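Narrative of activities, Objective 1.

The group set out to show that a structural description can be obtained from nothing but a protein's sequence at a throughput compatible with the screening campaign. Below is one input-output pair from the validation batch, recorded exactly as produced.
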Amino acid sequence: MPTIEQLITRERDRQTHSINLIASENYVSDYVLRMLGTVFTNKYAEGYPGKRWYGGCEFTDQVEQHAIDLAKELFHAEHANVQPHSGTQANLAAYLALIKPGDKVLAFRLEHGGHLSHGAPFNASGKYYKFVHYGVRKDDGLIDEQEYVRLLKENPDVKLVVTGASSYPRAIPFARMAAIAREHGAMFMADIAHISGLVAAGEHESPVPVSDVVTMSTHKTIRGPRGGMILCTAKHAGKIDRAVFPGCQGGPLVHVVAAKAAMLEEAVAPGFKTYIKQVIANAKAMAKAFTEVNAKRYRVLTGGTDNHMVMVDVTGTGKNGLEIEKLLGEQNLYVNKNFIPFDPRPNTETSGIRVGSPMITTLGAVEADMARVVQLMDKAVSGENVSKQVQAMMEELTSRKRAG
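Output recorded for this entry:
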């Protein structure tokens, strides 16, 4: 059995020599990475700044307050909780704060792009609350707003509406959906786990002004450590804080909170908006490239993308999503298998893949590089060995980033 240090070295080598197109992953900066490895990992700090259950928290309080202040500034939020250990943990805390077990919630269907924590029956959310789900239209793959309205009318006891997605490539109309929810007496919650960076940069409509609560993970487009955050109105602040601690968690991971603060410092800097603009441009270029390389083999869902991901039906290749994921992974190209709406295949196989631009954009890739990547993917799917070409492209991107 290799040592932990050896495994870390191997993982570093894998990341260094592969092209990662998994939409829910990103490279953190050296600054964020350093914050994760500090002496704050030694500190227990149950509670909140100025209200801890342990002594010796004076510097912990300053770290957490700094992260809170930055989150409020960046997202124009009345209140922020930076303690959740993950996006799912943030969602569970939000439910605990806003509704009671057995209450009814309307959310986006998992198979159409939603998330496990939006009421999947095998997730805690689906076990403790009654979820009904809206989805997308079969003809164009866009959110079915007529179904959304119909379900609210048919279920007048819905207490909370949850929006947000993990595999939906189009912009979500938060303000319009929030207005409809309130017309039907429901609170409104937005999960921006995937698009938090886009919202922070002003490149996607922000749900903060129209939502009771906004949740997110911090390790995707916003380029932070693995964790979660919650934003909310002042009205819900006390309930949210109590739901996180002591409701769902004990002591916060102070070293991770410090890394979130570092992430937020980077996100408020002018260069972050430039990065996010390139993330979106690269995703659009990738969607176009799939169609151009072979529209019969790769069907781009909704015809394109508004954010950082491209959803692709790979049925035309004669392979399922799992086979494509494994085949590409063997040649150091990483994507993930994914449901497509109305997918006839089981979730262990799927008919689609999800492809994202955040990581390769962090390396400095631009639109022209996206066509090259898609061509490499297509060659690999066709049986060619492209490992050396992948490594050469990674070396080119790395040297380009150093030079830039």
